[in-house]
Amino acid sequence: MRRAAIGRLVLALGLGSAVGACQDRAVEPAKPAAQVKVEAVAFTDYSPAVSLTGEIRARFQADLSFRVSGRITERNVDVGAHVTADQILARLDPQEQQADVDAAQASVRAAEAQVRQAASAFERQKTLLGQGFTTRRDHDQAEAALRTAQGSLDAARAQLATAQEALSYTGLRAGAAGIITARNAEVGQVAQAAQAMFTLAQDGPRDAVFQVHESAFLQQPENALIGLALVSDPSVRTTGKVREISPTVDARTGTVRVTITVNDTPDAMTLGTAISGTARLKSRHVVILPWSALASDSGRPAVYVVDAASKVAGLRQVTVLAYQTGKVVISAGLRPGDLVVTDGTKLLRPDEVVAMIQSGPSGATR
After folding, report:
1. SS3 letters for the chain?
2. pLDDT in tens, 242-277
């Protein structure tokens, strides 16, 4: 009897606990909707400015070299020197070229002597032929000998001119006024013909050279003029226009060389100075949202868009034009008036009901 009573008591207690648990679950409140901040989509004109750093270079720059080989005996300039067109930059030992000139001069004197002798013989044969004391054959031979001697003299004079010109090549002249930007010559060095000894940046127009990433060419500039300013002193400003875009990409840096003609170059923009170039891109109609609005859908950029009637947030893929500090610029995928979740996306799931807290473009809660 006692065992039966105990069993009935345990059964009653178990049933009571089960009923209590069911009652507790029945009274559990429903999960509240996730609270998120939303912003109504509003398109705006977006015209960003792109700034890069480059340097000032001469429009015309050339490597200077000797036209003949020899040992350098004199060097008159160094890097940074300003030179004139006829200034001698360096000299070679002229002994070999001077010897060629002396030999050519001797050949000329010998040829002149032969011409005088042949001319005298021809005049004698000419006189004798008129008096009938010589033959036509001897006269013609004397004339041919004179012409041969004159040809030899002309050849000797040409060789002398060539030797004298080679002698003049032992002095390396600037050829144009400018600034020496590089030097590879030193006294005692044996220089080969056409080996670069100096680099000359000629006076005259100046260019600004920039290394630009390929992505910059995907958008068109709003204006053909590029703003230029000294990095060390931004108050020194001027403008320029694109003169040349390299057709190849630098394999090491992945950039493209862009050359800009500098208009009215200020005196402070000397060769090699660092400058900044600024170009404003053509305006586009975009949506600018806080970075916190950006999510991912299958690895592609997306945002949560809330249906105003059902309060359900769904993912929508978008096209990102640019990333900025604290902001993201979207060029496609949204329509005016769409409600985009700008805060609270971290724990949000697609097709989830949300409680909206609307905010303005600046993030102020309304």
Report:
1. CHHHHHHHHHHHHHHHHHHHHHHHHHHCCCCCCEEEEEEECCCEEECCEEEEEEEEEECCEEEEECCCCEEEEEECCCCCCEECCCCEEEEECCHHHHHHHHHHHHHHHHHHHHHHHHHHHHHHHHHHHHHCCCCHHHHHHHHHHHHHHHHHHHHHHHHHHHHHHHHHCCEEECCCCEEEEEECCCCCCEECCCCEEEEEEECCCEEEEEEEEHHHHHCCECCCEEEEEECCCCCCEEEEEEEEECCCCCCCCCEEEEEEEEECCCCCCCCCCEEEEEEEECCEEEEEEEHHHEEEECCEEEEEEECCCCCEEEEEECEEEEEECCEEEEEECCCCCCEEEEECCCCCCCCEEEEEEEECCCCCEC
2. 999 998 888 888 899 999 999 988 989 999 999 999
